[in-house]
Amino acid sequence: xxxxxxxxxxxxxxxxxxxxxxxxxxxxxxxxxxxxxxxxxxxxxxxxxxxxxxxxxxxxxxxxxxxxxxxxxxxxxxxxxxxxxxxxxxxxxxxxxxxxxxxxxxxxxxxxxxxxxxxxxxxxxxxxxxxxxxxxxxxxxxxxxxxxxxxxxxxxxxxxxxxxxxxxxxxxxxxxxxxxxxxxxxxxxxxxxxxxxxxxxxxxxxxxxxxxxxxxxxxxxxxxxxxxxxxxxxxxxxxxxxxxxxxxxxxxxxxxxxxxxxxx
Length: 264
Known about the structure:
With 264 residues, the chain is mainly α. The protein has a domain at 201-255. It contains 14 helices and 2 strands. It has helices at 2-21, 27-38, 41-47, 52-60, 65-77, 79-89, 93-102, 107-115, 119-147, 153-160, 168-182, 184-187, 202-226, 233-263; strands spanning 190-192, 198-200. The protein has a two-stranded antiparallel ribbon with strand order 1-2. A hairpin with a 5-residue loop joins β1 (190-192) and β2. α5 (65-77) packs across α7. The N and C termini lie far apart (112 Å).
């Protein structure tokens, strides 16, 4: 009898502990658990220990085989970076586009922009806000002129306080757009250091800017020809300008070398 009482007390204690630790699963958790049951075993196993947000995003990629493979590769190569980036941008079409095209290499630049203040991004954001504020002011002024009413103090205060801080997520969004427009030229500027942190090689950025300045016309013409598009007169003209500049620079370099040789 005493042994039975001890067993009952132990069972009751275990039940209390389990009930204290138990919490009802949310609808999202139950839905994702159901999707994992029907997912391929390898995918379900890979996602088993991932946070709920990561599971939801990767499972959402299941209908796009290429996107799914690229997301899995990103989680395998840069797990911490992927867990930072995917919850922020994983459901956005522009991010899906660059992930499917470039794979895990998109993660380092986005994380770098998330974690660092980039002066060029801040200036671009500030300038865009000022331009938008000016457009809004002109629009309101025209409306006031048409109605004959003066601008109110509230409107003047709004014009004076138009700039809002650039958020961390907005900075990362700039990196996404840079990748979309510049592709490998931008991605090649980032490396991972020995501690697994992204670094931006600024000299690479400068060289890319110089290259774009002198060869963008030639590159644009070649791109249209390779993709079987019809080049315009402007495309041919800018390519010709780039060619003249390149030839001029080459001649100056040869003259400089010849002068250096003569002076020896």
